[in-house]
Amino acid sequence: MRIMAVDYGDARTGLAVSDAMGMLAGDAWTVSDRNADRVADVIAAEAEKRGVERLVLGYPRNMDGSAGPRAEKCEAFAALLREKTGLPVILWDERRTTVDAHRILSDAGRRGKKRKAVVDAVAATLILEGYLGSL
User: Fold this and answer.
1) DSSP states of 44-98 as a string?
2) Residues in contact with 101: Cβ distance below 8 Å, sequence separation at least 6, in sequence order
3) Which of 43, 102, 107, 120 is most deeply packed, by most CB within 10 A?
């Protein structure tokens, strides 16, 4: 089963797709758009094109486990994705994924604009790896 992870953001959204067996993270990229409806359309088209059967959306909880305004925004985006794709959408705790993505890119020598362009794709990959590991 192919699974797509989504790291939803205000300016960019990171996407990562598993292999066909749903065991390993594969392609990762970003969508640069601030409009949730257009981003959901891109995700729906990519999911159909790639044969995705499940979406995993990063759910940004606070460090104490509570849900803040970003979590509420993600819940609304999850509903939009369900509507546009007809796929199940799992909300996945993404605490620290962006911090970890920045650290990974920094360790790899990626700085400034180069890092900013790919950090959301790396965060989506970390979300996907976490979810696949839980299966």
Assistant:
1) HHHHHHHTEEEEEEEE-B-TTS-B-HHHHHHHHHHHHHHHHH-S-EEEEE-TTHH
2) 119, 120, 122, 123, 126
3) 120
DSSP helix/strand/coil, 15: strand
For the chain, the domain total comes to 1
Distances (CA, A) of 83 to 31, 39, 60, 78, 119: 19, 13, 21, 9, 27
Structure tokens at 2: 């192919």
Instruction: Tell me the CA end-to-end span of the chain in Å, nearest whole number.
Output: 12
- Residues whose CB falls within 8 Å of the CB of residue 65, separated by 6 or more in sequence, listed in order: none
Q: Which two tokens stand for residue 27?
A: 């392609």
CATH of the domain at 11: 3.30.420.140
Q: Which pLDDT tens digits describe the chain residue by residue (135 residues)? A: 899 999 998 889 999 999 888 888 888 899 999 999 999 999 999 999 999 999 999 998 777 777 778 888 999 999 999 999 999 999 998 866 666 666 666 666 666 666 566 778 888 888 998 899 888
Range of 14's domain? 2-134
